[in-house]
From TrEMBL, chain A:
The complex is composed of two ATP-binding proteins (CysA), two transmembrane proteins (CysT and CysW) and a solute-binding protein (CysP). Residues 10-21 have a biased composition (Low complexity). It comes from the Bacteria. SUPFAM superfamilies: MetI-like (SSF161098). PROSITE patterns: ABC_TM1 (PS50928). CDD domains: TM_PBP2. It comes from Chelatococcus composti. InterPro entries: CysW_permease, MetI-like, MetI-like_sf, Sulph_transpt2. This is Sulfate transport system permease protein CysW.
UniProtKB/TrEMBL annotation, chain B:
InterPro entries: CysT_permease (IPR011865), MetI-like (IPR000515), MetI-like_sf (IPR035906), Sulph_transpt2 (IPR005667). It is found in: Cell membrane. GO terms for molecular function: ABC-type sulfate transporter activity. It is a multi-pass membrane protein. Residues 68-269 form the ABC transmembrane type-1 domain. The chain crosses the membrane at residues 21-45, 70-94, 106-128, 140-164, 196-217, 223-243, 255-277. It comes from Chelatococcus composti. Belongs to the binding-protein-dependent transport system permease family. CysTW subfamily. One of its GO terms (cellular component) is plasma membrane. This is Sulfate transport system permease protein CysT. Its main location: membrane.
Amino acid sequence: MSVDTLTGMPRPAAARPAAAHSFRRPTTEGPLAKAILITIALGFLALFLVLPLIAVFIEAFRKGAGEFLAALGEPDTLAAIRLTLTVAAIAVPLNLVFGVAAAWAIAKFEFKGKAFLTTLIDLPFSVSPVISGLVYVLLFGTGSVLGTWLKAHGIEILFAVPGIVLATVFVTFPFVARELIPLMQDQGTGDEEAALSLGASGWQTFRYVTLPNIKWGLLYGVLLCNARAMGEFGAVSVVSGHIRGLTNTMPLHVEILYNEYNFVAAFAVSTLLASLALVTLVFKSFLEYRYGDEIAATAKH
Amino acid sequence: MTTLVAAQGWHFRKPSVIPGFGLTLGFTVAYLTLIILIPLSGVAWRSMELGWAEFWAIATDERTVRALRISFGASLIAAMVNVVFGTLVAWVLVRYRFPGRRIVDAAVDLPFALPTAVAGISLASIYAPNGWVGQLLAPLGIKVAFTPLGIVIALIFIGLPFVVRTVQPLLEDMDREVEEAAATLGASRFQTICRVILPGIAPAVLTGFALAFARAVGEYGSVIFIAGNIPYVSEIAPLLIVIRLEEFNYAGATAIAAIMLVISFAMLFAINLIQAWSRRRFGYVG
């Protein structure tokens, strides 16, 4: 029996292909049309999605495993990996806390301007990554009041780690919130009201009632947030200053190596990022398959 | 007491026994303001400081106009390609059963997960004149990498999941009875698809188009490696912002950013309108 990807529930009988070959159901296409459509779709995906992914791994091993490992062992590469992990370790928890707070306020209460607030939370998705970086250059750069004041007090934001963290937070801002809001809206407030009426405190209600309800959705949001945080290029590129070994994240390091025509090294670092993407996809598909109905009743994206 | 207050006309929020409203809303608004709104308003602030004459000079500068035209033109073509193939992919994934379907379904999200810089260098190497696809096209006289066509290729990669993921849930929920009714009324399968199914999913397709387009216009990482970045020919608007910043020409960068932001917000507004219209017309969110 076929199973729905999103909910993991068996599909209704109507979705099953017709058993009899002589009679074609009027609500589906002939076998030839089916085969052609499937071939076109798969061919398109192979050309545009699979080929670029395979190319990363083949280019990385073009000169053998020795060169590949040597490229990964470079001190600058190791520094880039460390910085990427550091930035994600700060940005993701910040947006996690924000996401939970925003979803609590928006999903559990009715108040004026809620729709507007939800739109504002989604705002970073419609801003170009380059502009997400630019806004911090304008805020902290030379010529701005704040930037000058901070510089006088010896605090570096731009072309330093804080700027990279801020740009990453900006870009990954909506991920957790937008997963949790529809989920918690669907779940309503009945469980929490029951807990409160039984004498639980607000924190206990959240910890023992709400959190277990939303944990898979939360994990899902964090997963997507983390993938974007580690892979962000445009926004980080604008604020980083590209100082090797200091303010280069992995994607920026890929760019530098590529522009130096050091293709093997560029693709070697890329394999790490591509593996991260693959792990994210596998984990995400597993969550959708196993806990589909506990992630979100609405669309995946 | 609270109910009494609530009963009397306007109130900011409906009363509720659930605690933490002030705390969570306060934190949400403060964080949103600090991280998003204040920095973003800086673009508007700096643009206004420029004055209209200077802003207009930058906006109508030949290089700016060309960059914006390339960004929007390539995004438009890529989004249209994605509408056709994205809808087809969604259709095939929902309606047909074939081996490996679930893996293909998961792979559609690859552009969301793969860092844009990685996609960029990979596409550049594939479509370069000596790359896998590039060397097949070179004898035909077709150059992809380092031309505007390369930009379109990168933007197709980036935008594909948006169309698939907006159309797919709708096709899954679609009622087969309508198609059966069309068939019993004598419509051919082709007529049913054109006149019954496609109009039904049109709002979702339109939303997917708008999302893919909006994302493509701002895209930077995957494009710059394959584009060749020749001014006036294959230089996209986000790259021009970066170039202006590197020249410490903040005014130039801000003006281009302001133009792009205004257009993106107009797009966002358009998407909301489509969804509101679709909710009224079809009773679902596309």
